[in-house]
Design goal:
globular, 7 helices, Phosphatase 2c, domain 1, 5-stranded antiparallel beta sheet
């Protein structure tokens, strides 16, 4: 296993950072969550989700694989729902999540919402995950143009989120992850703002992962950074 680095930034508009991420190289576990909700509820939802997944993966009796990763996100959904029920000010809180388990040649990826996992391999950038959004799942089917979708009032509406319903369907993938590949996990404050061309340019710059993370954050800041920005890089 190679190296990893993560970074988050509040952006230029928001007053608090509702993104939460963790890197656990000892487990091969990396997670990004982008919370939503009033007051501090979004921060709470993303933190509960990440901490639940980490705790489940660290259990001594746990078989760490794609199924257990998916099940840990479903448990996080219950924990976020429970917390929202206990405290009225947290009602309606939720979060996206994208999590990856990596080993020598494979990566297991689980996601809910519109935080993404990208794979940079053999000169190409692939978005592995699917955005669970109104734009992606409904808007495009209505024949709206990309320009119309970018300004549509529903453009930020998620069709799935951890904490939104009593149960959550988790999208899962297993992909090849070979020497020289880079995985990028990020919140929509990066990919929606910087654009994929900037992602490629940042990832292809020489230097350590920390420098690449700084370039990714800077790419969103240069576009006004209306949202929190988080990037986690894993190199094999």
């Amino acid at each position: 296993m190679g190296s990893s680095y993560g970074m988050t930034h509040v952006g230029l508009v928001r007053s608090n950072n509702e993104d939460f991420y963790v890197s656990k190289p000892d487990l091969g576990l990396y997670i990004v969550a982008d919370g939503m909700g009033g007051a501090k509820a979004g921060e709470l939802a993303s933190r509960i989700t990440v901490e639940t997944v980490v705790a489940e993966m660290e259990r001594d009796d746990q078989t760490v694989n794609l199924d257990s990763l998916s099940e840990s996100i479903q448990l996080a959904n219950k924990n976020v729902r429970w917390e929202a029920e206990q405290n009225r000010q947290n009602a309606g809180m939720g979060t996206t999540v994208v999590a990856v388990l990596v080993n020598e040649t494979k990566a297991c990826i689980a996601s809910v919402g519109d935080s993404r996992a990208y794979l940079r391999t053999d000169g190409e950038l692939y978005c592995v995950t699917t955005d669970h959004t109104w734009v992606n799942e409904i808007g495009r089917g209505l024949g709206l143009t990309e320009e119309q979708l970018r300004t549509h009032p529903y453009r930020n509406v998620l069709t799935k989120a951890v904490g939104a319903e009593d149960t959550v369907e988790v999208e899962t993938h297993i992909i090849d992850f070979i020497e020289g590949d880079i995985l990028l996990l990020c919140s929509d404050g990066l990919h929606n703002v910087a654009g994929e061309e900037a992602l490629v340019q940042s990832l292809d710059q020489p230097g350590p992962l920390k420098a690449k993370c700084e370039l990714l954050i800077e790419a969103a800041l240069e576009k006004g950074a209306p949202d929190n920005i988080t990037a986690v890089l894993i190199e094999n």
